[in-house]
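[scheduler] slot 2 assigned
[scheduler] job type: sequence-to-structure, two independent chains
[scheduler] chain ordering preserved from manifest
[runner] begin chain α
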Amino acid sequence: MLVATVLALTAAVLHAGWNLAVKTSTDRFLALWGQFVVGGAIGAAGLVVLALTTGDTVEAGALPWAALSALSHLPYALLLAAAYDHGDFSLVYPVGRGAGALGAAIGGALLLDDRLSPGGWMAVIVVAGGLASFVPRGSSGRGLRDACLLAAVIATYTLLDAQGARRSTGVGYVLCIYVGAGVVISAYGLARGRGHELRELGRTSAGRRSVGLAGVASVVTYGLVLAAVRRAPVGYVAALRESSVVLAAVIGWRLLGEPLGRARIASSAVVASGLMLLVAFR
């Protein structure tokens, strides 16, 4: 259990960490694009290794869901960049992650026939209350709006991935999503004529280090969660993973000097508590 705890908390730190790297970038979409290119390359290499060593491939029934999930990562990247452009880290991250998980839970109950117990619905109310407490504490209306739109996309791809994961086995499905997202976001960036900017970013050691570390962190985060759930109940791991919303509020206040630090930490703690209850009552 101790190993699982360390793995889950490390995943929470890494997820908040690569988001912080995006927030502090001068061009946030470009940073995300580079990150997804690295993640896609890792995913492609992983698929090749799987095919050569185990013969595993992504099941045909899961491919449409992987494709839809990959497509949804384009609005995810655009909205995440916009939200960090206009909103504080201590606002955007907790609201985006918290409301995204909340939307996925409700969407699963309404669309995927996932049952929520009375305790689960109580947890939904707790999360909603914690999110509502952010409203008067938003640094800008646009930042909060973009965070809510981001949450809708997170909920959407979470539901898509739930369907895809139920039609697949192993990690091939997730690797396929990384590849697809890298291709989709690259197609958009190239169509907007920004390919030369990504190349310039890749020519600098600082740029390569930044997008490389963020891309690796995004993939490793998922790997750590997979490793943790092999050693402890899924609910326990998921609850620890959601502690990242509180961590983001602390980072925004103490490292970035954002306002309303204590109030946002309190709101994030309520959101995290509700998410933990939601997992516990599944």
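[runner] end chain α
[runner] begin chain β
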Amino acid sequence: MHQPTIRIEALSPEFADAVTLLAATLSLPQTGDAGHALQLGPRGLQLQELGPDAAGPVRVDFVEGALAHRRQQGGGNGQMIAKAVGVQPGIRPIILDATAGLGRDAFVLAGLGCQLCLIERQPIIAALLADGLQRGRLDPEIEPIMQRMRLLQGNAIALMHAWQDEAPQVIYLDPMFPERTKTSLVKKEMRVFRPLVGDDDDAPELLVAALELASHRVVIKRPRKAPSIPGQLPGYVIEGKSSRFDIYPKKALKAKS
């Protein structure tokens, strides 16, 4: 897949020094023609598609917007994702989210009290996520949730093979799936990120590494009608209207006595 051209720019002069540092870290130019711009401004870091039909900017925002609404409306233990990872009375598993993306599912699980390690291999998406986590830690209301989330940038398969810490009880995977053949519009984030990340063609290897490391279960989020990841069938499935969770149990999660 052709990688899009991306430049980085400050939206106001006071961010120029930070942009110069980030440009060096991410090896991005600050000038020139590009299909996307990574922009730093008063609202944080954002990725903006450029051109006449461009979608709006994509940023990670744990404080306001859809995630805040979901949390304030009591997104609780009854959610499908909570059941999938094994949240129960007295049980808050330690989770590795090995395909973190924008961190939305991880934030939901951290809001339920789970400790999470997040891995994102695409450096620009990881930078957006790190920026969102940093801003979230400055908000007194969600700062305790942010403290339950830590981010690693790198290849999840390599990081899992070299894991030195205590094994996570649950490993959560949400691989990028092949593009739809229908003409319906995909989400703005998908439209912006698809050229950047492509498909997760190594999803079978990701599943193998996860099954080797997880102490209790591996959970894979899939579109409802998509096939399972090749290599091993899930033990059971939790299905919703548009998505499902394939569960690969290794042993039962138990409440602490």
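[runner] end chain β
[qc] chain β: The CA atoms of residues 35 and 53 lie 11 Å apart.
[scheduler] slot 2 released
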